[in-house]
Amino acid sequence: MNAIVxxxxxxxxxxxxxxxxxxxxxxxxxxxxxxxxxxxxxRKTLESFPGGRPLPNRVNIVMSRDPEYSRDDCIVxxxxxxxxxxIADYDEEKVFICGGAHIYNLFLxxxxxxxxxxxxxxxxxxxxxxxxxxxxxxxxxxxxVMSEKGIQYRFMRYxxx
Length: 161
Ligand SMILES: NC(=O)c1ccc[n+]([C@@H]2O[C@H](COP(=O)([O-])OP(=O)(O)OC[C@H]3O[C@@H](n4cnc5c(N)ncnc54)[C@H](OP(=O)(O)O)[C@@H]3O)[C@@H](O)[C@H]2O)c1
Prior knowledge:
three-stranded antiparallel beta sheet, 4 helices, Dihydrofolate Reductase, subunit A, about 160 residues
């Protein structure tokens, strides 16, 4: 399965339950990659989406440990095993782990491909993605450098060592 994430120079991914920066080109890329596919998110990330609602045209799976938490607009799973059971119905290439930090860590070992947007800035962050360079993952594709809002970034794909 895949993970998709935007990180800064320090592998920071968020602050105060929001993204570090909103880059239209990156949001477009995220939409292109995930539309028509399955996304798995933690409750906090779902709450950070526009209107706190699931993303359209995707199967949204949200994780919460709270037995009282229920929603009729997406699939709620309470354990990793429950998620694995749900996604077994889909081609693993169609499944994207979409964060936040708790969910990325939970599925790190299960992901083969990581679509990482590397933002060439160091923001103040309170949430981080594991440093794939330090962990020995390798890059098998990267885009040209792009620039928006005076910020440079590029898309990279990491694969398991
Ligand atoms: N840069 C990016 O690409 C990107 C992508 C996604 C998110 N983010 C950022 O990441 C931050 C949110 O990340 P986060 O780590 O704080 O929260 P999160 O992973 O989105 O959600 C955490 C919640 O998920 C549930 N959960 C976690 N582990 C679980 C498990 N093992 N089993 C069942 N449920 C589990 C719990 O919900 P309950 O409390 O309901 O039990 C927990 O409070 C935000 O700042 C967001 O903007 C950034």
